[in-house]
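Q: What residues go here?
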């Protein structure tokens, strides 16, 4: 039995490979770039915390690799980007975020992603049961479209997960000006280019000011 089959056996929701056609509305596999130097850096220079996750939006050493300039010039059409990472031991949904611009994830280890669509948000709430779970195999690079709801990966081993995160520059950094809300979406704005719906039980996100709009049980994925 392979890992994907095992994940489907131990979970009560389907876990689908990002190579499956079902992933198409959420994103695509990124091909044509060699991410091996970034992956090697992640394996050798970054750690998985004992508890929770660690996220760094921009790591200057990672941004020096030639593939980053290729991504900036070609994939993002010469827009400024940042390269960082998310490592951790997460197993629960916790909430969802989205950005105005695509995100690239490079799986340094196998992990799962819980994804949704922005058009499924109703009155700044989102239902847990509307989300879908996808498996990302080690070494795979994916684009998640700006309409795709996502948050931290979920681990598939006791050891945790590691992933490269590439985004438009400035994303997930502190806001400088948060003016009056001009429409309902503004309630979800938490950081620069980061709109968030959190589960009410996810206290760290709520304390940061995230909108508690995730409805249903804060589901945990097994492995």
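A:
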């Amino acid at each position: 039995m392979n890992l994907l089959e095992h994940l489907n056996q131990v979970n009560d929701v389907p876990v689908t490979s990002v190579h499956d056609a079902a992933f198409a509305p959420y994103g695509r596999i990124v091909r044509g770039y060699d991410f091996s130097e970034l992956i090697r850096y992640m394996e050798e220079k970054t750690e998985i915390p004992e508890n929770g996750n660690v996220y760094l939006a921009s790591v200057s050493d990672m941004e020096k690799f030639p593939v980053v300039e290729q991504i900036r010039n070609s994939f993002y059409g010469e827009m400024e980007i940042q390269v960082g990472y998310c490592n951790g031991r997460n197993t629960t949904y916790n909430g969802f975020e989205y950005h105005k611009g695509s995100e690239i994830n490079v799986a340094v280890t196998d992990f799962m992603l819980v994804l949704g669509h922005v058009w499924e948000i109703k009155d700044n709430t989102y239902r847990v049961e509307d989300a879908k779970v996808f498996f990302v195999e080690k070494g795979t690079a994916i684009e998640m479209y700006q309409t795709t709801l996502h948050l931290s990966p979920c681990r598939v081993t006791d050891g945790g997960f590691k992933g490269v995160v590439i985004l438009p520059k400035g994303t997930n950094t502190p806001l400088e000006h948060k003016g009056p809300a001009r429409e309902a979406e503004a309630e979800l704005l938490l950081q620069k280019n980061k709109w968030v719906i959190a589960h009410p039980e996810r206290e760290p996100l709520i304390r940061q000011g995230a909108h508690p709009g995730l409805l249903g049980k804060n589901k945990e994925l097994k492995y």
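A: Context that may help when evaluating the design: The radius of gyration is 17 Å. The longest strand covers residues 81-88.
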